[in-house]
Amino acid sequence: MNMRPNRSRIRIVRLGDPREYLRTELVQRDAWGIEQADIVIPFHMMIAAQHHGGLVLGAYDGRKMVGCLFGIAGRDKKRQFHYSHITGVLRAYQKRGVGLLLKKRQRDLVLKEGIDLVKWTFDPLQAGNAYFNIRKLGAIAREYHRDLYGRMPDSLNKFMISDRFEAEWWIRTRRVNNMLHGKKKHLSLSQLKAGEAGLINETDLEDGVRRPVKSNLNLNEDRLLFEIPSSIEKVKVRGLDLARKWTLHNRRAFENYFGKKYIVTDVLLDREDDENRIYYLLERGFRPLA
Ligand SMILES: CC(C)(COP(=O)(O)OP(=O)(O)OC[C@H]1O[C@@H](n2cnc3c(N)ncnc32)[C@H](O)[C@@H]1OP(=O)(O)O)[C@@H](O)C(=O)NCCC(=O)NCCS
Q1: How far is the CA of 158 from the centre of ligand 1 (A)?
Q2: pTM
Q3: Same domain, 133 and 159
C-alpha cells in the first residue's frame, strides 16, 4: 500500500482546543528525535503564546497532526517582528510539502497583523534546512550567533556547538512572493563561476565525506560562494571532531564576511561526479527590501 501523503489533503489549522496542543509535543519529539520530555516546548507555553501575540499552527492529515509551527511576538530596537521558534514535521511526512504549507500560512497570518518580518535561527550546517529556508522560502541571513543554545540533547544537535544563522524573512517583498510561487530565476553554479563569483573555501573529499581545507577571508568580489557538506549527519558518523571543525570553519568565514556586509541570499545544489555539492551564495550590495 502506498503510504505517501498527498499534499492536497493536508490541512493547516490554527490550534484552539487545548488537547491539540499536547499533540505538538509528539510531533516535536519525532521531528527532532527528542528522547527527553524536558526539552520539548510544553503545550501550556504554546497556549500562552497563541493568546498573546504568538502563533501556533498544526498540519493535519485527516485527524492526525503531522506538523506544527510555533512563533512568538518579537521586538528589537528597530521594529516589531514575528519570531518563529520551531517548525517541525513528522519524519515520515518530511519533504512532501508540509513544512512549506505551514510557512505559507504563517506568512498570510502575520501579514494580516501588519507585520513584514519573520525571523528564526537555524544551524547553517543543516543543508536541508538551509535549502528550505533560503532557496524555497526566500529568507536571507546576515547575522551569526556563536553557540546560541549551549549544548543540546536532541539527536540533531547532540554533541554539536550550537552556532546559528539568524534568518530574516521579509514576507511582503516581491522576491519572497516570487520564490514561494516558484517564479524566481536563480543563477546556476556554473553561471556564478563564469561571472567570477569568488570561492571562499576549499574542501576535499575523503572516504565519501567532505572536509574543510582552508578559507580565503580577503576576497573582494560582489558574489561569493561557500561550500558546506551535503549531510552533516554523515560527517558526524565519521567523527564529531570533524563536525565541530566544520562549525568553526563556517564561523570564521561567516563572521568575517557578514562583518563586511555580505548577505546570504541563496543555496545552490550541484551534482558533480555522483556527489551532491551544496553552496551558500553571499552577495554584497543586496537590498533585502528592494
Ligand atoms: C525543516 C522541515 C520543517 C521542512 O519541512 P518539510 O515538510 O520536510 O519541507 P517541504 O517538503 O515543505 O520542503 C519544501 C522544499 O524544501 C526541500 N527540503 C526540505 N527539507 C529538506 C531536507 N532536509 N533536505 C533537502 N531538501 C529539503 C524539499 O525537498 C522541498 O523542495 P522541492 O519542492 O524542490 O522538492 C522538516 O524537514 C523538519 O521538521 N525537520 C526537522 C526539524 C527541523 O530541523 N526544523 C527546522 C528548524 S526549526
Answers
A1: 20
A2: 0.94
A3: yes
Instruction: Output the residue whose Cα is nearest ligand 1's atom 10.
Output: 97
Say what the pLDDT of residue 36 is: 63
**Is 80 domain-assigned?**
yes
Q: Determine which residue's CA is closest to atom 27 belonging to ligand 1.
A: 128
Measured from the Cα of 67, ligand 1's closest atom is 39
Residues 178, 199: Cα–Cα separation, whole Å: 27
Q: State residue 152's pLDDT score.
A: 78
Mutate to test the pocket of ligand 1, among 61, 132, 166, 228 (most ligand atoms within 8 A of CB): 132
Q: CB 103: neighbour CB atoms within 10 A?
A: 25
Domain count, the chain: 2
Residues of the chain with pLDDT under 50: 1-2
The DSSP secondary structure of 196-216, one letter per residue, reads TPEE-EEEEEETTEEEEEEE-
C-beta of residue 88 within 8 angstroms of C-beta of residue 28: yes
Question: What pLDDT is recorded for position 158?
Answer: 75
Tell me, what's the pLDDT at 2?
A: 45
CATH number of residue 174's parent domain: 3.40.630.30
Q: Compute, in angstroms, the gap from residue 227 CA to the centroid of ligand 1.
A: 19
Asked if residue 2 is part of any domain, the answer here is no
For the chain, give percent helix, strand, coil, nearest 5.
Answer: 35, 35, 35
What is the residue range of 92's domain?
7-180
Q: What is the pLDDT of residues 88-146, one digit of tens each?
A: 999 999 999 999 999 999 999 999 999 999 999 999 999 999 999 999 999 999 999 99
- C-alpha 128 to ligand 1 mean position (Å): 6
In a domain, 289, yes or no: no
